[in-house]
Amino acid sequence: MSILPAVSTGPLRLVPVQRLAQGGRWRTEAMRSYRMPLLLWFTRGQGRITVAGLTRGYGAHNAVFVPGGTMHGFDVSGKVFGTAIFFNQSDGLDLPAEPCHLRVRDARHQNELTSLLEALQREIDADRPLRDRAIACHAGLLSVWIARQRADYEDRPGETAARDLVRRYTRAIEEQLYTGQSVGDYAESLGVTPTHLSRVCNQTCGRPASELLADRLTFEARRLLLDTALPVKRVAEILGYGSAAYFTRAFHNRTGQTPTEFRERRQP
Protein backbone atom coordinates (compact mmCIF):
# COMPACT_ATOMS: atom_id res chain seq x y z
CA MET A 1 0.00 0.00 0.00
CA SER A 2 2.51 2.57 -1.06
CA ILE A 3 2.95 5.62 -3.21
CA LEU A 4 6.65 5.59 -3.98
CA PRO A 5 8.91 7.10 -6.63
CA ALA A 6 9.59 4.77 -9.54
CA VAL A 7 12.70 2.80 -8.68
CA SER A 8 14.25 -0.48 -9.70
CA THR A 9 13.17 -3.55 -7.81
CA GLY A 10 15.55 -5.48 -5.59
CA PRO A 11 16.09 -6.58 -2.00
CA LEU A 12 16.34 -2.97 -0.80
CA ARG A 13 15.24 0.47 -1.97
CA LEU A 14 16.79 3.70 -0.77
CA VAL A 15 14.73 6.85 -1.22
CA PRO A 16 15.68 10.36 -0.02
CA VAL A 17 13.17 11.57 2.55
CA GLN A 18 12.63 14.78 0.58
CA ARG A 19 11.62 12.76 -2.49
CA LEU A 20 8.96 10.95 -0.46
CA ALA A 21 7.29 14.30 0.14
CA GLN A 22 7.21 15.35 -3.53
CA GLY A 23 3.68 16.10 -4.64
CA GLY A 24 2.33 17.28 -1.30
CA ARG A 25 2.89 17.08 2.44
CA TRP A 26 0.15 14.44 2.67
CA ARG A 27 2.54 11.94 1.07
CA THR A 28 4.47 11.68 4.35
CA GLU A 29 2.21 13.25 6.98
CA ALA A 30 -0.98 11.27 6.31
CA MET A 31 -1.36 7.94 8.08
CA ARG A 32 -0.37 5.02 5.86
CA SER A 33 1.39 1.66 5.95
CA TYR A 34 3.70 -0.25 3.64
CA ARG A 35 3.78 -3.97 3.04
CA MET A 36 7.52 -4.07 3.66
CA PRO A 37 9.54 -3.01 6.74
CA LEU A 38 10.94 0.51 6.64
CA LEU A 39 13.87 2.25 8.31
CA LEU A 40 13.85 6.05 8.39
CA TRP A 41 17.26 7.61 8.96
CA PHE A 42 17.10 11.35 9.64
CA THR A 43 20.40 13.20 9.21
CA ARG A 44 19.21 16.80 9.51
CA GLY A 45 16.19 18.69 10.79
CA GLN A 46 13.47 17.78 13.23
CA GLY A 47 9.76 17.09 13.36
CA ARG A 48 7.07 14.80 14.69
CA ILE A 49 6.49 11.19 13.79
CA THR A 50 3.50 9.00 14.62
CA VAL A 51 3.96 5.23 14.62
CA ALA A 52 1.20 2.83 15.68
CA GLY A 53 -0.71 5.72 17.24
CA LEU A 54 2.16 7.14 19.32
CA THR A 55 3.48 10.59 18.38
CA ARG A 56 7.03 11.58 19.30
CA GLY A 57 9.65 14.08 18.22
CA TYR A 58 12.55 13.16 15.96
CA GLY A 59 15.78 14.96 15.20
CA ALA A 60 19.10 14.57 13.46
CA HIS A 61 20.70 11.12 13.76
CA ASN A 62 17.44 9.44 14.70
CA ALA A 63 16.60 6.08 13.15
CA VAL A 64 12.98 4.91 13.27
CA PHE A 65 12.18 1.33 12.32
CA VAL A 66 8.60 0.66 11.17
CA PRO A 67 7.57 -2.99 10.65
CA GLY A 68 5.51 -3.84 7.59
CA GLY A 69 1.79 -3.17 7.95
CA THR A 70 2.29 -0.59 10.72
CA MET A 71 0.39 2.70 10.50
CA HIS A 72 2.65 5.75 10.52
CA GLY A 73 3.19 9.28 9.24
CA PHE A 74 5.71 12.06 9.86
CA ASP A 75 6.32 15.78 9.30
CA VAL A 76 8.83 16.77 6.63
CA SER A 77 9.88 20.40 6.34
CA GLY A 78 12.31 21.81 3.82
CA LYS A 79 15.05 21.47 6.45
CA VAL A 80 14.62 17.73 7.00
CA PHE A 81 17.01 15.38 5.23
CA GLY A 82 17.60 11.67 5.44
CA THR A 83 16.97 8.34 3.79
CA ALA A 84 14.08 5.89 3.76
CA ILE A 85 15.23 2.28 3.46
CA PHE A 86 12.56 -0.16 2.24
CA PHE A 87 13.24 -3.84 2.92
CA ASN A 88 11.56 -5.34 -0.14
CA GLN A 89 12.87 -8.77 0.78
CA SER A 90 13.15 -9.24 4.54
CA ASP A 91 13.02 -13.04 4.74
CA GLY A 92 15.94 -14.33 6.75
CA LEU A 93 16.67 -10.93 8.30
CA ASP A 94 16.35 -10.63 12.06
CA LEU A 95 14.43 -7.35 12.05
CA PRO A 96 12.45 -6.04 15.04
CA ALA A 97 8.85 -7.21 15.31
CA GLU A 98 7.77 -3.91 16.89
CA PRO A 99 8.53 -0.28 16.02
CA CYS A 100 11.65 1.18 17.57
CA HIS A 101 13.07 4.69 17.80
CA LEU A 102 16.86 5.01 18.01
CA ARG A 103 18.49 8.29 19.01
CA VAL A 104 22.07 7.60 17.91
CA ARG A 105 24.45 9.94 19.76
CA ASP A 106 27.84 8.35 19.02
CA ALA A 107 29.38 9.78 15.83
CA ARG A 108 31.09 6.45 15.13
CA HIS A 109 27.76 4.66 14.91
CA GLN A 110 26.28 7.47 12.83
CA ASN A 111 29.17 7.20 10.38
CA GLU A 112 28.88 3.43 10.33
CA LEU A 113 25.31 3.65 9.06
CA THR A 114 26.17 6.40 6.59
CA SER A 115 28.98 4.30 5.13
CA LEU A 116 26.72 1.27 4.92
CA LEU A 117 24.03 3.21 3.05
CA GLU A 118 26.59 4.68 0.67
CA ALA A 119 27.88 1.19 -0.12
CA LEU A 120 24.32 -0.02 -0.60
CA GLN A 121 23.55 2.80 -3.01
CA ARG A 122 26.65 1.97 -5.08
CA GLU A 123 25.51 -1.65 -5.36
CA ILE A 124 21.97 -0.60 -6.27
CA ASP A 125 23.23 1.77 -8.98
CA ALA A 126 25.76 -0.66 -10.41
CA ASP A 127 25.00 -3.28 -13.03
CA ARG A 128 27.39 -5.95 -11.84
CA PRO A 129 27.19 -9.72 -11.46
CA LEU A 130 25.69 -10.94 -8.17
CA ARG A 131 24.24 -7.49 -7.53
CA ASP A 132 21.17 -8.69 -5.64
CA ARG A 133 23.26 -11.07 -3.57
CA ALA A 134 25.57 -8.22 -2.56
CA ILE A 135 22.59 -6.02 -1.67
CA ALA A 136 21.11 -8.84 0.41
CA CYS A 137 24.40 -9.14 2.31
CA HIS A 138 24.36 -5.41 3.01
CA ALA A 139 20.77 -5.77 4.22
CA GLY A 140 22.00 -8.34 6.71
CA LEU A 141 24.64 -5.91 7.96
CA LEU A 142 21.97 -3.24 8.25
CA SER A 143 19.82 -5.55 10.40
CA VAL A 144 22.86 -6.15 12.62
CA TRP A 145 23.40 -2.38 12.95
CA ILE A 146 19.78 -1.95 14.07
CA ALA A 147 20.09 -4.74 16.64
CA ARG A 148 23.31 -3.30 18.08
CA GLN A 149 21.95 0.24 18.33
CA ARG A 150 18.80 -0.97 20.08
CA ALA A 151 20.94 -2.10 22.99
CA ASP A 152 22.39 1.39 23.49
CA TYR A 153 20.11 3.98 21.93
CA GLU A 154 16.52 2.76 21.80
CA ASP A 155 14.17 5.39 23.23
CA ARG A 156 11.54 2.98 24.47
CA PRO A 157 8.42 4.61 25.95
CA GLY A 158 6.93 3.02 29.03
CA GLU A 159 4.10 0.63 28.25
CA THR A 160 0.67 1.84 29.35
CA ALA A 161 -2.88 0.60 28.85
CA ALA A 162 -3.57 3.64 26.65
CA ARG A 163 -0.63 2.95 24.32
CA ASP A 164 -1.54 -0.71 24.08
CA LEU A 165 -5.13 0.13 23.17
CA VAL A 166 -4.16 2.65 20.48
CA ARG A 167 -1.62 0.24 19.04
CA ARG A 168 -4.33 -2.43 18.79
CA TYR A 169 -6.70 0.12 17.25
CA THR A 170 -4.24 1.11 14.51
CA ARG A 171 -3.48 -2.55 13.84
CA ALA A 172 -7.20 -3.30 13.52
CA ILE A 173 -7.60 -0.44 11.02
CA GLU A 174 -4.78 -1.84 8.87
CA GLU A 175 -6.22 -5.34 8.99
CA GLN A 176 -9.77 -4.24 8.19
CA LEU A 177 -9.22 -1.11 6.13
CA TYR A 178 -11.60 -2.14 3.34
CA THR A 179 -14.51 -3.21 5.54
CA GLY A 180 -16.15 0.20 6.01
CA GLN A 181 -16.11 -0.05 9.80
CA SER A 182 -16.73 3.02 11.92
CA VAL A 183 -14.95 4.10 15.09
CA GLY A 184 -17.86 2.61 17.01
CA ASP A 185 -17.33 -0.74 15.29
CA TYR A 186 -13.63 -0.76 16.11
CA ALA A 187 -14.28 0.32 19.70
CA GLU A 188 -16.78 -2.49 20.18
CA SER A 189 -14.31 -5.08 18.85
CA LEU A 190 -11.68 -3.73 21.24
CA GLY A 191 -14.04 -3.88 24.20
CA VAL A 192 -14.22 -0.15 24.92
CA THR A 193 -16.55 2.75 24.21
CA PRO A 194 -15.91 5.14 21.30
CA THR A 195 -15.49 7.95 23.81
CA HIS A 196 -12.78 6.08 25.70
CA LEU A 197 -11.01 5.12 22.47
CA SER A 198 -10.95 8.74 21.31
CA ARG A 199 -9.70 9.88 24.71
CA VAL A 200 -6.71 7.57 24.69
CA CYS A 201 -5.93 8.41 21.04
CA ASN A 202 -5.79 12.06 22.07
CA GLN A 203 -3.44 11.13 24.89
CA THR A 204 -0.96 9.23 22.71
CA CYS A 205 -0.99 11.16 19.42
CA GLY A 206 -3.02 14.33 19.94
CA ARG A 207 -5.91 13.43 17.67
CA PRO A 208 -9.20 11.57 18.19
CA ALA A 209 -9.87 8.07 16.93
CA SER A 210 -12.10 9.40 14.15
CA GLU A 211 -9.27 11.57 12.81
CA LEU A 212 -6.83 8.65 12.67
CA LEU A 213 -9.35 6.56 10.75
CA ALA A 214 -10.36 9.36 8.36
CA ASP A 215 -6.72 10.28 7.69
CA ARG A 216 -5.84 6.66 6.90
CA LEU A 217 -8.84 6.23 4.59
CA THR A 218 -8.07 9.48 2.78
CA PHE A 219 -4.49 8.42 2.13
CA GLU A 220 -5.69 5.09 0.78
CA ALA A 221 -8.22 6.87 -1.43
CA ARG A 222 -5.45 9.08 -2.82
CA ARG A 223 -3.29 6.01 -3.43
CA LEU A 224 -6.02 4.23 -5.36
CA LEU A 225 -6.85 7.33 -7.39
CA LEU A 226 -3.20 7.85 -8.38
CA ASP A 227 -1.89 4.31 -8.66
CA THR A 228 -4.88 2.71 -10.40
CA ALA A 229 -7.40 3.56 -13.12
CA LEU A 230 -10.32 2.37 -11.03
CA PRO A 231 -13.50 4.44 -11.39
CA VAL A 232 -14.33 6.68 -8.44
CA LYS A 233 -17.38 4.54 -7.72
CA ARG A 234 -15.20 1.44 -7.44
CA VAL A 235 -12.73 3.22 -5.15
CA ALA A 236 -15.65 4.16 -2.90
CA GLU A 237 -16.82 0.55 -2.82
CA ILE A 238 -13.36 -0.80 -2.00
CA LEU A 239 -13.01 1.59 0.93
CA GLY A 240 -16.42 0.69 2.30
CA TYR A 241 -18.30 3.91 1.57
CA GLY A 242 -22.03 3.54 1.13
CA SER A 243 -22.10 5.45 -2.13
CA ALA A 244 -19.85 7.35 -4.52
CA ALA A 245 -21.60 10.57 -3.52
CA TYR A 246 -20.81 10.04 0.17
CA PHE A 247 -17.21 9.20 -0.67
CA THR A 248 -16.90 12.32 -2.82
CA ARG A 249 -18.22 14.54 -0.02
CA ALA A 250 -15.91 12.98 2.55
CA PHE A 251 -12.90 13.28 0.23
CA HIS A 252 -13.71 16.90 -0.63
CA ASN A 253 -14.13 17.83 3.03
CA ARG A 254 -10.61 16.61 3.81
CA THR A 255 -8.73 17.65 0.67
CA GLY A 256 -10.68 20.54 -0.83
CA GLN A 257 -10.98 18.58 -4.09
CA THR A 258 -13.32 15.98 -5.48
CA PRO A 259 -11.74 12.60 -6.28
CA THR A 260 -11.99 13.35 -10.00
CA GLU A 261 -10.31 16.76 -9.60
CA PHE A 262 -7.56 15.23 -7.49
CA ARG A 263 -6.84 12.58 -10.10
CA GLU A 264 -6.98 14.92 -13.11
CA ARG A 265 -4.70 17.57 -11.59
CA ARG A 266 -1.97 14.97 -11.03
CA GLN A 267 -2.05 13.40 -14.44
CA PRO A 268 1.06 14.11 -16.57
From TrEMBL:
One of its GO terms (molecular function) is sequence-specific DNA binding. InterPro entries: Homeodomain-like_sf, HTH-like, HTH_AraC, Tscrpt_reg_AraC-type_HTH. The keyword 4Fe-4S does not apply. Pfam families: HTH_18. It comes from the Bacteria. Residues 167-265 form the HTH araC/xylS-type domain. This is AraC-type DNA-binding protein.
